[in-house]
């Protein structure tokens, strides 16, 4: 089923999604990869604030290539999500509603997705140049010293993803791919 979603996400939006749904996201999403997740996790351990409010928001596991002249952002394809698995349950428990990446997730992430009524989306790997055309604004908001791994706030329009894991724990990779 094709769905249009606005981000930040509402609880109802997430609860209505099912593994296998095609979704087009419009609104604000945030980027964070390995190094940024490590810093956010350390901030939480130290009782510090995160650089953005994760509640009802989506994190895209992506580190873009540098933008070319006249472009908002460079290639913007997903990275392997499992590298963020050790940090993800904590963010979901703080209200993160969605993640975009590629690849399988571990059982602790699946449990946290179900416990918190969240969703895991996949973006098509290898299609970074095409995905970048759906990003209309990109602003570094934290950890600028990390270069392409800095946290960015992205404004997206009809950004295409597929629901891999829904809030009920249905998993497209397990149920279809095996």
TrEMBL record:
Keywords assigned by UniProt, alphabetized: Lyase
Origin: domain of life: Bacteria
GO MF annotation list: hydro-lyase activity
A Pfam entry, by short name: Fumerase_C
Domain Fe-S hydro-lyase tartrate dehydratase beta-type catalytic, first and last residues per copy: 5-175
UniProt-listed InterPro entries: Fe-S_hydro-lyase_TtdB-typ_cat (IPR004647), Fe-S_hydroAse_TtdB_cat_sf (IPR036660)
Keyword match Lyase: yes
Keyword Translocase tagged: no
Alphabetized NCBIfam families for the sequence: PRK06842.1, ttdB_fumA_fumB
Family matches, as PANTHER family: L(+)-TARTRATE DEHYDRATASE SUBUNIT BETA, L(+)-TARTRATE DEHYDRATASE SUBUNIT BETA-RELATED
Family designation: Belongs to the class-I fumarase family.
Protein name: Fe-S-containing hydro-lyase
